[in-house]
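FAQ: What does the model actually see?

It sees only this:
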Amino acid sequence: MKDIEIPLESHRKGHYRFFEMLPGMLSWSMLALPFVLSIYNVRLAAFFMFVYVLINFSRAAAGGLRAIQGYKTMRQHQKLPWPDLLKELGTGVLPARVHRPGWHKYAITQANERSLLMPPEEVVHAVIIATYKESREVLAPTIEAVLGADFNMKQVIFILAYEGRAGQETEDRANELIKTYGKEFRDAFAVKHPSNLPNEIIGKGGNVTFAARELENYLKKKSIDPMRVLVTTLDADNRPDKNYLNALTYAYIICEDPIHTSFQPVALFANNIWDAPAPMRVLATGNSFFHLVNSLRSHALRNFSSHAQPMVALMKTDYWSTRTIVEDGHQFWRSYFRFEGNYRVLPLHLPISQDAVLSDTYLKTIKAQFLQIRRWTYGASDVAYVVHLGFFRKNTVPKTDLIGKTWRLLEGHVTWAVGPILILFGGFIPILFNPASYAALELPVVVSRVQTVALGIAFITVFLALKTLPKKPARYKRHRTIFMVLQWAYLPITTVVFNACAALYSQTRLILGLYMSKFDVTDKAVVSADGSKAK
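And it is asked to produce this:
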């Protein structure tokens, strides 16, 4: 497929506009359905709500178990001696009397039967950190986390992609950071993304794409084969695990089809989790669990935030889209259609730790949190893009696979918008219209019992939340840990106010054609040892 770009706003008409509106129309219809059914047939309304709650309860139970499995797998991978594994893969020799995972033994067997893509020492990593106005206190720990990797930094190119519209202070900061840390890498440079480029919205996609094009020029100048280069994009607050580069190198050189593959680590929102307000901690932990679960669901895994792709693949897709504020998730579909469905995301079971939302004041933090989730939920805009390219444009994408992926995309966004509301309040709707109905009277009782069982499952979430916490900062006393448990009382509020309302907001804007054409940068303040904040 030649043209994989999102149509300009002025060109979105006919079927494209219909499918932009579809998630919102389905969501509002789902919310109205219990009321409509209660008016005409209260038993049917009660049956509908019972089935819906039961389905979502089953999903929650499965998700809780998967989260535990995902956490266990991540911890196992964090403990592995990745430099040794990489060395053994390169030599094709397993050490005697040393325990190694079964998949590593299999990889060595395969490497001896067919050669690796390249020796590990020939892989070059390009790490692009995107920044707008983040302070040195936010950026420096991210760069230091990359440098702290148990990996040869002379195989790493560091690029600091900064926005020209951010002003002279940001430019000076970028150049100072390159001067301070650049000598530790194979090479390092800052790239200034000009403002007001044609057909670009204000967003991260344009910034990292401009930087990647500069990287392409650099590789040509240095005569470095793009096939050797793996590109990782990081936000300003993203701190990769010390073995991330080793594991990524390992996965790349054993991959049977690396050009049609991207690599997704586990996003954990834990950097400043002790400092964030309780509602933000609940949301951050819930998001971390979501990514732990998805790390075990390869068929449903998508690009999110920090991810890696071969430079060759990025050149073939013309990098990331510059017309959407959700360039990370959209990159999955962009690559999927460029390669005619021959594309997959492989999980790396290692974390890249990110910040929970935190601003100067409590109210600013609440607003920033809503804006962040509003941006994520705007991924519903991909429904029209996927249907347009998949079903209205000539292609050879396997239709069975496309239908399954399209359904999961649409259903996921509708559930994001209506699930929390219907689960919490839907059981009480039929009784409002027919208080004498036995079915209407029994439904709240049945739903409450299901929710009671779900509460028991929630204790798994609390336990796992405590396990994933980083070490408590010295400035906090022991009672802070108690609040880390009590905070889960906010869960019903956060799921409705932030998740459901943000999703409904985004989908309603798509119905009205009020597109989000600006990337709202999330406030992520750093709290120092004395309790002061810096953004």
